[in-house]
Amino acid sequence: MDDITERHNAKMKKIKAARDKMMETKTEEKGLIMVHTGPGKGKSSSGFGMIMRCISHGIPCAVVQFIKGNWDTGEKTFLRDRFPDECRFFVSGEGFTWETQDRDRDIMAAKKGWEIAKEQILDDEVDFVLLDEINIALRYDYLDIDEVVDFLLHQKPRMTHVVLTGRNAKPELIEAADLVTEMSLVKHPFKDGVKAQKGVEF
Amino acid sequence: MDDITERHNAKMKKIKAARDKMMETKTEEKGLIMVHTGPGKGKSSSGFGMIMRCISHGIPCAVVQFIKGNWDTGEKTFLRDRFPDECRFFVSGEGFTWETQDRDRDIMAAKKGWEIAKEQILDDEVDFVLLDEINIALRYDYLDIDEVVDFLLHQKPRMTHVVLTGRNAKPELIEAADLVTEMSLVKHPFKDGVKAQKGVEF
């Protein structure tokens, strides 16, 4: 074994010991309130990656899409066509708000979505709920942030996971959440004239 | 219509016009080099969310997992069991490097993974390739960053998308990429003693 390999292996052994010790303290299981926000990519797609994991593990799950309603997204077709029993899929909203240009209709759609979301979160047969793009509805005050946070903190069943996605998450939601990830944009090809593409963006 | 609604609708109309104009300039389609990095969650799971979109759109895809080799991840079981034709799944590596504590074996596994990765990227029948956790192998110099970047820039077929995940992406890779997202950790429940849970972390 050469020097660099020996040093590396010793270092890795130390890291493993520290990690094992740290992981011993991680014993609690509980349903998490998770937020994916920020201007970067990956907020919705990582939510759907978790849905894939849930289906694989036999964890019953549900999706409520708040904003991308009338888009033919890959995830909607995929889950509706192939996993209708494993994952319930609801759509509320009719595209981004600058597409509809009708605030009253947007508010109605958001409120309808939130009613469905509450039902799914409270449902004993659902353990993981993805509220896709709900942050947009909260940002424009289509939904009352205090009501949403209060429900998540006090009525969500203890073991149910809820993921809330969308940019500009409200500070109240970030405060209430267990796990918050900010997706930042380091580089984006839109700037160079590349359009949204299948598989990547939708 | 009340004042606030009228103002809102006018504002949304203006945003839509600006957006439509902007989108008109986005006409190019090309295979992208995409990087998901940073200490936050969602780097791998958003890659798998994109794989879900690809399968749904009929885009043939492949995954090479560099580091999480011996974990029974939900995504591995899901794709291997249910979509063996739609998504090729390769594993190279035997767990995080602090688990194996054997640098030579890690290097061999990484190099084998990279050979598979190149084959898949060059394959005419594959249009989307996810190189999961390759950044870890690059960070420890198990793979040569110059060789990887050179291959991506000069040998990758023009229309093939490649996603590279893992924290601590090398500056050379960020420079070469079309789209880079940094996942930042705003809050993490590990700090409060909550352990990694099915569906969420794997």
From TrEMBL, chains A, B:
Top-level EC class: transferase
Keyword Lyase (UniProt): no
UniProt main location, coarse: cytoplasm
UniProt-listed Gene3D superfamilies: P-loop containing nucleotide triphosphate hydrolases
The entry's keywords: ATP-binding, Cobalamin biosynthesis, Cytoplasm, Nucleotide-binding, Porphyrin biosynthesis, Transferase
InterPro entries: CblAdoTrfase_CobA, P-loop_NTPase
Record keyword Glycoprotein present: no
Subcellular location: Cytoplasm
E.C. no: 2.5.1.17
Pfam families in UniProt: CobA_CobO_BtuR (PF02572)
Known pathway: Cofactor biosynthesis; adenosylcobalamin biosynthesis; adenosylcobalamin from cob(II)yrinate a,c-diamide: step 2/7
GO molecular function: corrinoid adenosyltransferase activity
Signal peptide: none
Catalytic activity: 2 cob(II)alamin + reduced [electron-transfer flavoprotein] + 2 ATP = 2 adenosylcob(III)alamin + 2 triphosphate + oxidized [electron-transfer flavoprotein] + 3 H(+); 2 cob(II)yrinate a,c diamide + reduced [electron-transfer flavoprotein] + 2 ATP = 2 adenosylcob(III)yrinate a,c-diamide + 2 triphosphate + oxidized [electron-transfer flavoprotein] + 3 H(+)
Family, per entry: Belongs to the Cob(I)alamin adenosyltransferase family.
Role summary: Required for both de novo synthesis of the corrin ring for the assimilation of exogenous corrinoids. Participates in the adenosylation of a variety of incomplete and complete corrinoids.
Protein known as: Corrinoid adenosyltransferase
Species of provenance: Tateyamaria armeniaca
